[in-house]
Amino acid sequence: MKIAVIGGGIAGLSAGYELLLQNHQVTIFEASGYLGGQASTFEVGNQFLEKGYHHLFTSDKDIIQLMNELGIENNLQWIPSKVGIYKSNKIWNFATPLDLLKFKPLSFISRIRLGLVALYLQRQKNWKKYENVTAHKWLQKMVGKNAYQAVWEPLLRGKFGSQYKNIGMTWFWGKIALRFASREKGMSKELLGYPMGSFRIISDRLSEKILDLGGNIHTNTNIHEVIVDKNICKGIRILNSDNSYEDSEFDAVLSTAPSHVLPKIAKLPEHYAKNLNKMDYLTAVLVVLSLNKPLSGIYWLNVADEDIPFVGVIEHTNFISPKHYDGNHIVYFSNYLSKDHHLYSKNLNELLEIFIPAIKKINPEFDENWINDAHYFRVEAAQPIITKNYSELIPNHRTPIQNLYLANTTQIYPEDRGTNYSVRIGRKIAHMILEDHNHKIIDRLPAPVIANSFTNSKNF
Ligand SMILES: Cc1cc2nc3c(=O)[nH]c(=O)nc-3n(C[C@H](O)[C@H](O)[C@H](O)COP(=O)(O)OP(=O)(O)OC[C@H]3O[C@@H](n4cnc5c(N)ncnc54)[C@H](O)[C@@H]3O)c2cc1C
Hints:
Blueprint (H helix, E strand, L loop, with lengths): L1 E5 L3 H12 L3 E5 L11 E4 L2 E4 L5 E2 L3 H9 L6 E5 L2 E5 L2 E4 L3 H5 L6 H16 L11 H9 L1 H16 L8 H13 L9 E5 L4 H13 L3 E3 L4 E7 L2 E8 L5 E5 L2 E4 L6 H4 L4 H9 L2 E11 L8 E4 L8 E4 L13 E9 L10 H15 L8 E14 L19 E3 L12 H18 L24
Parallel strand pairs: 1-2, 1-14, 2-10, 7-16, 14-20
Antiparallel strand pairs: 3-4, 5-9, 6-9, 7-8, 11-12, 12-13, 15-18, 15-19, 16-17, 17-18
Helix pairs in contact: 1-8, 1-12, 2-12, 4-7, 5-6, 5-7
The structure holds flavin-adenine dinucleotide.
């Protein structure tokens, strides 16, 4: 078969790689000038670094397996995480059960309740029972308002900004189950993974393999239209820089672009287009500072203080040594925002003006002279908003147009979206396309690795 893949992020590259290994022809079209999508990088201190902080959990079996297959398994390092909460003008360590016991802003009873509820959730297997309740409601009821506001509300705000009250409990359950799965036996430590050299080594190696296997990759190529005739997808249309159109025929087209892109480029039946347009995302807005001194001793700091204009402080060099970045200490200040949020359209200088007094609250010694360099990134469609009863909203991978498929982060559920699931979804849809066209699947992988036995039975 001849297959076009729209999007050169991890899902598109994984799908393309799998289709080529199954002996089919693949062309990948990426709108931007680089590959890797949300996991793409920039250069800092002579090293590549993700525009948005990235790490892996030990439960991320599919991407670990892919790294093995690509021969880059030795780049993957596992490092104990250093997690904290900024609350009551202080940074509290929050990585181990002992840290929870020492968390003074809460009463002893509240701390015990928090620990017990986390343990309870970790043991639950049936995510469906959490579908019709929000995390905001369920957690407050189970751990009490104070404990919720001190610990879990910041986690939800960190991920979903002002939408945090609408998030389904299933999403939260998945997060807890996976975080605990990333702990060493006895739960004392959580290990997080990082591909040394950045996540770029995964997209670079995937693209090298795709080209070696005879695939084509076109960057700076925005798909203008998916050509449909009598409800059958026939190929794609590109708008060239000289305003001419170029059509190419394909037997199948897979879109890995955000859901709202497809109705703009393909004539879809109204009900399916309406469903895709309903899939709502938040934008990740990131200020990244290279400092000449460390800001804190914490890698991942949730901010439980609504007066601070960012919800997460991720000090990457408390995870990966500053020696890899020419001695720079790298800190991300993160927000997930909707387009109407007042911070969404601010530029780097405007954000810095607002952020610097808040950074001084986190570390009173912080001084602007510590800043070697500052960067700003806005990642659109970064986080699908996972409301309650989300399973009913998930669009099908098989669109109503024959030979046109969709695989993107809105279809990852009940797990949280992440590079691991983009690898998994890319491979699954590659197989789905071939099965739909009566091609035999070469059984080339070891036994399927399903982290925590999650499956999306509606789609797979
Ligand atoms: C701030 C942040 C932190 C994150 N942290 C982690 C983490 O710690 N660990 C982890 O595993 N994951 C993390 N993720 C998530 C992870 O990066 C994504 O889930 C994953 O990269 C999504 O890959 P994808 O291929 O599905 O989508 P994308 O990366 O969004 O790729 C889709 C591609 O389609 C292209 N496209 C769109 N429209 C068109 C068109 N018309 N024509 C051609 N191309 C088009 C886009 O340019 C894009 O490159 C994070 C994401 C963000 C934003």
